[in-house]
């Protein structure tokens, strides 16, 4: 009797398998883990590697108002650049700008000349070299963002102009707003006590970091968000600006500030060698849709 029951059970299993192949396969196959969600490549930001400063020829130009310590700034930057294996040339005068061919022999021009005046010939030579992509241009604080106040052509090239720093030296925060750019990748921002620059800016700059004004000193600008770090093109030439840097010692004290500065120099040094990036995105709408 026992053998008969066993025989009948085996027959039932065979019939079940024959009639339900899919179910059987599911029963006999090891369960596969649920695959992780795949993010489409188009959604993942591609961060392009920055050009190296190694063996780049860089011209440092200093002068103008001495309150920003242009010579000390230049000497400090020269040390940073030489550590990066760049070749550095220093000029204490903007007269070198008059020869655009001479400027074109450099991969990057870094300027620290607050206020001051510049000759028409010097400005023409500088703008020509940058606009044609023969060199890049970079700098920080007033040495670049408050130079040659009467020269609007210069401001057009840089992408902004200093107009005030309410409260003088104040505590404020620099916030990284574009972590998907090679200049700011992996950085989170920093707190600083220095001049918080309020600037008039070009709407087509690519903003990488900002700061917000509290309104403590000028109540009408409470909540205003101001670019601190940007990059842009002037013609075919790359331009980088960083509003921090009233005292050059800040770049020793704040690691992320030095990182941003040096990466900005790297990016701007690529005018001759790198493809032009296409990221212009006007902050104002091209047209107004009426309801």
Describe this protein's structure.
The chain is of the alpha/beta class. It has a domain at 57-162 and 228-268: Class I glutamine amidotransferase (GATase) domain (Rossmann fold, 3-Layer(aba) Sandwich), CATH 3.40.50. The protein is built from nine helices and eleven strands. It has helices at residues 2-19, 21-28, 70-83, 100-103, 120-131, 141-145, 152-158, 250-253, 255-268, and strands at 57-64, 87-91, 108-114, 136-140, 160-164, 169-176, 190-195, 198-201, 206-212, 225-234, 237-242. It has a nine-stranded mixed β-sheet, sandwiched between helices. The longest helix is centred in the first third of the chain and has 18 residues, at 2-19. The termini are far apart. 38% of the residues are buried.
Descriptive terms for the model:
single chain; alpha/beta; 11 strands; 9 helices; nine-stranded mixed sheet; 291 residues; Rossmann fold; two-stranded antiparallel ribbon
Short description:
This protein has 291 residues and is an alpha/beta fold.
Distance between the termini: 88 Å
The CATH architecture name of the domain at 57-162 and 228-268 reads 3-Layer(aba) Sandwich
Average pLDDT level = 88
Strand content: 15-25%
SSE blueprint:
Blueprint lengths: L1 H18 L1 H8 L28 E8 L5 H14 L3 E5 L8 H4 L4 E7 L5 H12 L4 E5 H5 L6 H7 L1 E5 L4 E8 L13 E6 L2 E4 L4 E7 L12 E10 L2 E6 L7 H4 L1 H14 L23
Parallel strand pairs: 1-2, 1-3, 3-4, 4-11
Antiparallel strand pairs: 5-8, 6-7, 6-9, 9-10, 10-11
């Amino acid at each position: 009797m026992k053998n008969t029951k066993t025989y009948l059970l085996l027959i039932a299993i065979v019939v079940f398998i024959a009639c339900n192949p899919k179910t059987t396969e599911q029963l006999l196959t090891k369960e596969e883990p649920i695959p992780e969600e795949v993010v489409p490549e188009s959604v993942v930001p591609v961060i392009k590697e920055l050009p190296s400063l190694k063996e780049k020829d860089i011209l440092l130009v200093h002068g103008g108002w001495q309150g920003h310590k242009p010579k000390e700034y230049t000497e400090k930057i020269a040390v940073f650049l030489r550590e990066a294996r760049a070749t550095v040339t220093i000029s204490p005068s903007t007269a070198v700008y008059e020869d655009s061919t001479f400027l074109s022999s450099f991969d990057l021009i870094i300027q620290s000349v607050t206020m001051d005046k510049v000759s028409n010939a010097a400005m023409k030579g500088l703008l020509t070299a940058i606009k044609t992509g023969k060199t890049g241009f970079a700098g920080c604080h007033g040495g670049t963002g408050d130079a040659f106040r009467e020269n609007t052509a210069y401001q057009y090239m840089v992408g902004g102009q200093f107009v005030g720093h309410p409260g003088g030296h104040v505590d404020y925060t620099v916030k990284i707003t574009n972590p998907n750019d090679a200049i700011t990748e992996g950085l989170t921002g920093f707190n600083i006590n220095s001049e918080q620059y309020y600037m008039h800016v070009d709407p087509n700059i690519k903003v990488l970091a900002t700061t917000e004004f509290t309104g403590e000193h000028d109540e009408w600008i409470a909540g205003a968000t101001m670019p601190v770090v940007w990059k842009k093109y002037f013609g075919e030439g790359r331009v980088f600006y960083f509003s921090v840097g009233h005292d050059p010692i800040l770049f020793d004290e704040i690691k992320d500030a030095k990182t941003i500065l040096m990466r900005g120099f790297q990016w701007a040094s690529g005018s001759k060698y790198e493809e032009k990036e296409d990221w212009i995105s006007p902050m104002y709408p091209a047209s107004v849709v009426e309801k």
